[in-house]
Amino acid sequence: MLRHLVLGVLVVSAVSAAQPKRNRVEKARDRQDLRQDNRQLTDDRLDAARAAALLRDYDAAASRNDAGRLASLDQAFNKHLVREIAESRVESAQAQQEVREDRRELKSDRRELNQDVALRRRPGVVADDVHDKNRDRVNLADDRVDAAKERMSRQRLLAIEQQLGPLAGRFDPPSVAQKRQLYAEVVGTAVNELGRDQAEKREDKRELREDRKETREDRRDPIR
To answer: Is the separation of the CB atoms in 125 and 116 below 8 Å?
Structure first.
């Protein structure tokens, strides 16, 4: 009996010691995500503004039938598209990394909840950990959606690059109209990316608030 009691105390102590460390790690990740959100939001605002300006210049040159200016703008759009494709690769990788981190957090939540039940902790403690698990399950679902959107956006940018290839050096009205349509889609992609950045920042702010709340709960009930 004494051996079981000592073992139970050791398990509770180990879990209690591990929880503050996990809270610190999660909050540090939240703050890092927010810093990355701010950088990405700034970069994508500039990208969207540049793309929109190029499209306006393209429309003006097309209205004048200025082949020289159209050729210059084709080069500018191609350079912009190359940068966007490179950035999309990085952003897609980041989105996948967030999904992996969410999976690890959810696994930790489930382990903690199982320990709650095994150690017969108070209903309030169990309820808090159920809430954490449900929250992280929602985060995982959201980040999977974000990762899928990033992947589709990248695939479409690559397809646009391929479609523009045969149109290079062509300035007849149908070719100009086709290029203009593709360029407009590039602008739309930049605007959509900006919207995803803003949504991601809101989500990361919410996660930081939730993790701060969890820390306060753990301090209120250190034995858990």
So the answer is: yes
pLDDT grade, residue 220 (50/70/90)?
A: low
Angstrom distance (rounded) from CA 211 to CA 209: 6
> How many whole angstroms separate alpha carbon 79 and alpha carbon 60?
20
Please report, for residues 93, 114, 135, the alpha-carbon distance to residue 88 in angstroms, rounded to integers and kept in the order given. 8, 39, 28
DSSP state of 119: T
Q: What does the pLDDT look like over 144-200, one tens digit per residue?
A: 998 999 999 999 999 999 999 999 999 999 999 999 999 999 999 988 888 888 877
Here the contacts of 212-220 (C-beta below 8 Å, separation 24 or greater) are: 212/27, 214/23, 214/26, 214/128, 214/132, 215/20, 215/23, 215/27, 217/128, 218/19, 218/20, 218/23
Residue 217, token pair as written in the block: 């709960």
Instruction: List the domain boundaries for the chain.
Output: 19-220
pLDDT at 99 over 80: yes
- Residue 130 makes CB contacts below 8 A (sequence gap 6+) with 113
Label residue 22 by pLDDT band (50, 70, 90).
Answer: low
Contact 208, 45 (CB under 8 A): no
Rounded to whole angstroms, how far apart are CA atoms 173 and 62?
Answer: 9
User: Measuring CA to CA, which residue among 169, 186, 213 is closest to residue 74?
Assistant: 169
What tokens were used for 14? 């180990």
At 122, the pLDDT band (50, 70, 90 cuts) reads confident
**Contact call for residues 116 and 129 (beta carbons, < 8 A):** yes
